[in-house]
Predict the 3D structure of the following.
Amino acid sequence: MAWRLNKGDWSEAYVFLKLLAEGRIYSGDEDLNKVLSVYMDVLKIIRKNLGVKNEYAINTDYIVAFEGREDSVLIPISEVSGYAERLFEYIRMAKGSKAFEFPDIEDYLIKTMGIHNIKESCVDDEYDKKTDILLEVLNSNDSSREVIGFSVKSHLGNPPTLFNYSQASKMVYRVEGCDEETMHYINSMKNSVGGCDLDARIDYIKLSEKLDLRFMGSKIIDNRRYGEAKETGPFFTWNLEHYDVNMLSVFDAMLLSDYGYYEKPVTRKLSDVAEAWH
């Protein structure tokens, strides 16, 4: 059956081919501009196909596909680069957000690269399950060699999301200084359709001299009257702290800044959010 993939999934195939062709990942600044002085050389890409690990080693003029196996083959980098450019144009020119078929790219990935399912998990259990591509790299700063997993986020289709809210990612606050009468008054604030008027409630708390919002973390409330809480599960917190130990506090600042509890930041850049927060 022919592959029918959306732009995001085809972008994962593009990144695979593009990295094989160029062999380098550059850092980017806050505006996504390439920083030429900071980069990682890609030594190989590691994938699985039908449960079998395949390694694609990058040399000066060619790729060693299935490195270390008897059936390893040499593929010219110029050939890989051509397919990467072709796939990029296919994705860029595709109209709408539905699934698309690119038979020549599919044929090349299956017959030459040995990839029968671009969405097959490329990693073992020791790596993050959100990893879309696994690379062995050489760091330009200290020449360290390591294996790193990356998640692919593409701007060729719908805008990518870095965070999706759910019942497991609640941000919980306690209203300090709130008695029962005040609690009922705040809870009585409704919008025009009878739902919770969160903006009005936050404005009331912000303007009150006796009330304050205290962030309690990523938790669910067990007993709302007494403000007891328990963890929803460790994964949301772990995922955030994987990037920075203070990331929950950053989310707290962004959320309350967006609702006007803190002064509105000049932009949505984290540096401006932090400045408004403090």
